[in-house]
Amino acid sequence: MKKLFSIFVAFFLSIASYAQWSGNLDLGGGTNFSGSNNENAAFKVKYSGKRTYVGLNLAGSHNYMPSEQQTTIIDVKKEGNEYYKAEDKIIKPRNWDARAGVDFGYALDTLNAIDVSVSYSIRAGNEFVRLSTERREGLSREGITGIQEDSVANKSGQIDGIIAYTRKFKNRPSAVFSAGGVYYGKSNLERKMRFTDGNFYLKHKHYATYSNLNDIDFKLNIAYNDMFNFNGSKIKLSAGIDSPLNNDVDGYTAESFVGGAWKDSTDYRQSYYYFSWAAEPYVNLVWTVGKFDFSLKERIQWYSHSMMDKLDEKKSRSDIKYLFDKEDWQNILAAGVKFRINERNSMSLDYARTISRPDYKKLCPTYMIGESEGEYFRGNPELKPEISDNVNFNYSYIRSIFNLSLDFHYRNKTNTAEKVMDVNFDPSTTDLGEKTLFTWINNKRQESKGVKLDLKMNGNDIKAEIWTAFNNDVYGNNKEFNKEDFNYELGSRINVYLNQSIKLSSDLIYVSAKESAYNLKGEDVIANLRFTKTFANGLELFGEFRDIVDKENHEQTWNQELTYLKDVVTKPMQRALLLGLSYRF
Fold this sequence. Notes:
Structural class: mainly beta
Number of helices: 2
Helix content: under 10%
Largest sheet: 22 strands, antiparallel, barrel
């Protein structure tokens, strides 16, 4: 018995001799001048032994940020039916989040290791929205008013899981093989109550919607990384395959308040099942020879997705139909070259293609209720992915603590999914006085040319950056251009270290008006000032003032024939004062 006890003590001491503890605690919060506030806390601790590690992660937050939006809408139809509508919206959202997770790693031997991470999070929130509307049909008619109130409550739970295997090779120290999977599962329940009143609406409406959303995202990846040296040159290799999978089950029912009681309204009862899967083999190469770096990234994406209609009132499985079922191939290529002229000067030229796919709600060809009263959406299953071809040239000059860079870029973006009015689809649902139907089409392309000059200073006590950028965009349909915009940006960022423990940081950025395919974003002024005090024991205190002013935002939505315009003008403002602390050990 004594011998066993001695062996146990020796084993425990051997583990303790290798053990290391690390972690951090973050607390923060603040208020802005409109009465909102937010608080957050996070705690992490990690125990590392000779061959294992275990970590615990806890986090929570609360956020309350009311806001007010004033929107003016002018709907004009060339046939002569015009009206003006002004909206005053008050939004009061409140959210709570909590997350708990465990990390675990085990080294099978000096070459093989397994890492596992599992976490569970819950989220709850509520939101109250009051929308006051005034409308004048025809520019000379007497105005009529209406009020819409929405009360939303939601709760959700999510499980995240990661498992990864890594193998190194004894005879090739630079080679690493890895394989793993990432899982995200989410279930969401939401209830919305809507009450409308006033002369604006043809009749008073009281109804509630109950929606549930279940998402599953899973991704498998296999990768091999290595480095080769021969004849004075060096090649970095990365190759593998990614395979993401997504399942979305979305559905809701609606009830109307009739005769003092809630009754089912099957007009709005919907349920959809969306499935997507992709296989993406890739290879990345960087070849360094002399003063040149040549890079090549090639990825082939095979993408398959489908959507089924699962209306609750359908009794037979044979009644469930495919709303769409299709697949496509995409070639995603990137290449570049960098030339190091000398120790101070270098140039590079890069090309890259990016692809952005529409989400399934933009593809679903059935009716969906919009955010505002009288707005409905109908997706377009024929939407194509947006494709951008980008070219960038960079010149860099480094001397002492200064770094000067000059960038020229060109981008050609096609198949932009534009939101449009669908006034010709069904006249009974697009009466200007009752409902507006939106859909999406691949109707836009964009060519963008610009230049950016950036100067950085990396001193011991002061780190600063100033930049200016100019951009020229032309927009049009997929065949021709019909709109042009010029915008610019000026910015500065300064970090001053008063001593080893006190730091002051400031940002001041001005962005002129920017357009994006008929959507105009107004001038932005962004100003941040942050004070940080660091103590020797790992404790850090900070205070930050943020000021973000969007002077004016425009959003213009047309129908396909450009005969019907909805112009929305919004003037939001955000100022916030934040305080917090961080402790690392």
